[in-house]
Amino acid sequence: MAASLFDSQLYASLFSAGDISRLFSDSAEIRAMLLVEGALAKAQGKLGLIPEDSAAAIGRAVMEVALDPGALTQAAGQNGVPVPGLVSALRDEMNAPEHAQYVHWGATSQDIMDSALMLRLRQALAAVETDLLILLTQLSDMADTHANLPMAARTYGQLATPTSFGAVVATWGQPLAALLEELPTLRQTCLLVSLSGAAGTSSALGPKASELRAELAAGLSLVNPHRSWHTDRSPVLRIADWLTRACTSLSKLGTDCLALRQSGIDELTTITAGASSTMPQKQNPVAASALIALASQATAQLSALHHAAAHQHQRDGASWFGEWLSLPQIVFCAASAARTAVSMTKGLAPDAKQMLRNLHAANGTIYAEALSFALAEQMRRGDAQTAVKDLCAKAAQEGVPLQEVATAQFPELDQATIFDATRQLGSAPEEAQRFVRTVAALKGRKEST
What we know:
two-stranded antiparallel ribbon, 4 strands, mainly alpha, 3-carboxy-cis,cis-muconate cycloisomerase activity, EC 5.5.1.2, 18 helices, about 5% strand, Fumarase C, Chain B, domain 1, elongated, single chain
């Protein structure tokens, strides 16, 4: 088994992070750091901090050179960061000492690496957002179609009251829609440029340090934080938290689909089931299981990321290294979960006949709450509940529907309303339609930006 399943050819289709996996490759990190170095030189040249011809030469070089990650291995191991080796290699490749001396002018390794990280996290967020929008469209269509399809709601794993499949779908999608509504603010407050120098004081960046940071932010289309955030990892934590919450919401989808396809319930059908090596009858809910596993992994890695967030003094290698170990895994989990959910829900459909059979299971006692409130109109609420408990016990003992024993004892009740699932849905259809409207509004705002 590969050290990371996200890098495995064997498990590539089970835990696929798509193009995001390439964002956290060595080559992608080097390319992002070079882009930052080039943007820094351009900003410094514009402000007259380094010669403009040197800035132009550096800008050309970062676009043209191809640095081999293997050539930076020894330097990265010795220095704890790849930037010194990268800067040295870039200067050598430029073959123009008069210009190369201005590479990395006044910056520190963390400025380059954190800014490069944000460039890649920006792409990762965009990719996850795209998949979640596709998923929400699929779920919205499903909720709209089945807003009034009755099924059994379950609490503590037991039959509770009737709901609709559309409302259940809405519970899968609403948290995801809320997450996408958070994204503009997240981007504006967390996708930050970093430029504060060796100890966060910008001392080597000169009197135009603040102006330079703003120029670099504009050049990279990142946000200017107006401060140093070398040891404040809250921007990274908030992005990781958003990705983990996406995993958790998708895990709810997986958990419910796993349960609703369980033998004896069988209320969902899918075209993405897996086969057993020895049991021909099996149709294993592989995708649903993957969603649950991915959320578990992301949550564990987020905990580790929080542990690594408290940096000592103005720079802390140990804590920073811990971030490197955990953050990519969280990104991969979210990307893989979103892609998996899109694929799984394409072939997902309710089995209306089985849902109806399950509504009638357990002697129809799913209507006990409705019956107790109907009786409460003619007796005390406590007495009504006691009476219905007795009726449920009698139905179970005699193996007959609750409606039958209730009719015998209380013939004056409106049995057609009490024991009709379509008339006991409460707000379920509206919950489904509210979700449909939420997704439509979300897509409308996205299209207008």
